[in-house]
Amino acid sequence: MSSEEQEDVDEDIQYFVRIGQTDLDGTKTVERALAELGGVGRRVARIVADEAGVDRTATMGGLEDDAIESVTDAVDSFTEHAPAWLANRQNDFYTGENQHITGTDVELTRDQDINRMRMIRSYKGIRHERGQKVRGQRTKSTGRTEGTIGVNVEAIKEEQAEDDAADGGEE
Predict the structure, then answer these.
(1) CA gap 146, 71 in Å, rounded
(2) Which residue ranges have biased composition labelled Acidic residues?
(3) Which residues contact 56 (CB under 8 A, 6 or more apart)?
(4) What are the residues whose beta carbons fall under 8 Å from the beta carbon of 93, sequence distance 6 or more?
(5) How far apart are CA 20 and CA 73, in angstroms?
(6) Other beta carbons less than 10 A from residue 100's beta carbon
(7) Tens digits of residue pLDDT in 5-22
(8) Is the dihedral of CA 97, 102, 104, 106 positive or negative?
(9) Dmax over Cα atoms in the chain, in whole Å?
(10) Three-state SS for 139?
């Protein structure tokens, strides 16, 4: 491929593709670009690309506008054509439906769930409030946020060196 053909290809690429309130890198493949979207990993991206009828190894920015729209529609309607066990929000608390949340909604939904647990004073909510581990991990020796535990050898050596210097100067 000559340099002129390479420049023509680069001019046709959209460097940013907007899907689900997120700018995706148009220079990456469809599968890898979709994986940057919150709530979409490599496996879900592969399923979405196949459902949209797009080659998942094609460059995301090189797709036509109608292909990008079909990818967007496939992301939005993921739960309709994917198995229920693949949804990231199964049996939603409020609706009882299986949903697949993408983009910034993932973090917002997570925060709402944590706040709901805090309000009803569940065990997990109390652990979240206190900043402690929630999922049953050990806390005796890991996850400490305060200063160092035990003997600080460097500080002791510095104090001894200062004491020795002070004692040596007085004699």
Answers:
(1) 47
(2) 160-171
(3) 29, 30, 31, 45, 46, 49, 50
(4) 113, 116
(5) 10
(6) 22
(7) 555 555 688 899 999 888
(8) positive
(9) 89
(10) coil
